[in-house]
UniProtKB/TrEMBL annotation:
Domain ABC transporter: 20-252
Gene Ontology MF, one: ATP binding
The keyword Metal-binding is assigned to this record: no
UniProt entry keywords in alphabetical sequence: ATP-binding, Nucleotide-binding, Translocase, Transport
Name this polypeptide is given: ABC transporter ATP-binding protein
InterPro entries per the UniProt record, alphabetical: AAA+_ATPase, ABC_transporter-like_ATP-bd, ABC_transporter-like_CS, ABC_transporter_ATP-bind, P-loop_NTPase
Domain of life assignment: Bacteria
Record organism: Heyndrickxia acidicola
Length: 282
């Protein structure tokens, strides 16, 4: 992205209302002992329409909890979650999720799995199948419409999961370690596939990963959470690497290495704190 374009991009993020926003969000859980466990403390985070934002942080710091708040699976204990400026109450209808585990129903064929979201929204079978075929083609699965998930590889099942989520044209795509179970080559293929499809849509993506390289390679911004309990945002990094990107190659770019070093300095400290906390509990 050139300097002029970058300026426009920043102006855009200021002018367009955030697609999703966490405003002063604290999340507490009650432990079985009755004790209050504060997971997130006073989080302020805005993600613009069309932005690709990844979140990294030590294990157990609250990344999935943040995703659950945006999805509306959990309400905040304090503060609010805004979706396109409106306070979220209950499940977020504008979001679709892709988790690490399989999304597809094993007893349904690829086309029935992919068309399901539209069928549940009342689209007739013919129309839903027509749209599903388009999405199956977009994720490179033409010819596999009648296969069952067990007849596909792990990477192909991830493609089904992507098509399943994207067919309903969500404004927000929530991804929780979606590719972490894949071998590195399939993972790079899927990451490139995701970027290609994302660039054709205006969806905002909130992506959880343990892998800092993956976060940088994919994202417009990388958020670093502190070690819990009571995690806060430690860093919010703009990733000004050119697009389109090839995730398998971008890590050789000197600009990539520079930002990686910078973010890792932040992340490393939190990983050490988390490790010390876990050791002191033993
Ligand atoms: N429903 C719940 N009830 C009680 N505690 C919970 C609940 N969900 C999450 N937690 C706690 O909140 C903390 C943060 O969990 P979360 O899964 O959000 O972390 P994470 O950063 O996604 O972890 P990981 O990197 O290991 O996937 C953990 O201590 C977890 O035990």
């Amino acid at each position: 992205m050139g300097a002029a374009e970058k300026k426009v991009y920043h102006a855009k993020t200021q002018l367009i209302p955030a697609s999703m926003e966490l405003k002063g969000v604290t999340k507490e859980f009650i432990k079985p002992s009755g004790e209050v466990h504060t997971v997130l403390r006073n989080i302020d985070l805005k993600i613009s329409k069309g932005e690709f934002v990844s979140i990294v942080g030590p294990t157990g710091c609250g990344k999935s909890t943040t995703l659950s708040l945006i999805a509306g699976f959990e309400p905040p204990s304090q503060g609010e979650v805004l979706i396109s400026g409106e306070k979220l109450e209950g499940i977020n209808p504008r979001a679709a999720c892709v988790f690490q585990t399989e999304n597809a129903f094993p007893w349904k064929t690829v086309i029935d799995n992919v068309s399901l979201g539209l069928r549940l929204r009342g689209t007739n079978k013919g129309e839903a199948y027509k749209e599903a075929r388009k999405w199956i083609a977009r994720v490179g699965l033409t010819g596999f419409e009648s296969h069952y998930p067990s007849q596909l590889s792990g990477g192909m099942r991830k493609r089904v999961a992507l098509a399943q989520s994207l067919i309903v044209q969500p404004e927000i795509l929530l991804m929780d370690e979606s590719f972490s179970a894949l071998d590195v080559h399939t993972r790079h293929l899927m990451e490139n596939e995701l970027l290609r499809i994302w660039e054709e849509t205006s969806a905002s993506v909130f992506f959880i990963t343990h892998d800092l390289e993956e976060a940088i390679a994919l994202s417009d911004r990388v958020i670093v959470l502190t070690a819990g309990p009571g995690a806060t945002i430690k860093g919010d990094y703009q990733i000004d690497l050119p697009r389109p990107r090839n995730v398998a190659e971008i890590s050789f770019d000197p600009a990539f290495m520079k930002i990686h070093k910078q973010i890792w300095e932040d992340l490393k400290d939190e990983v050490m704190i988390s490790y010390e906390n876990a050791r002191s509990l033993k």
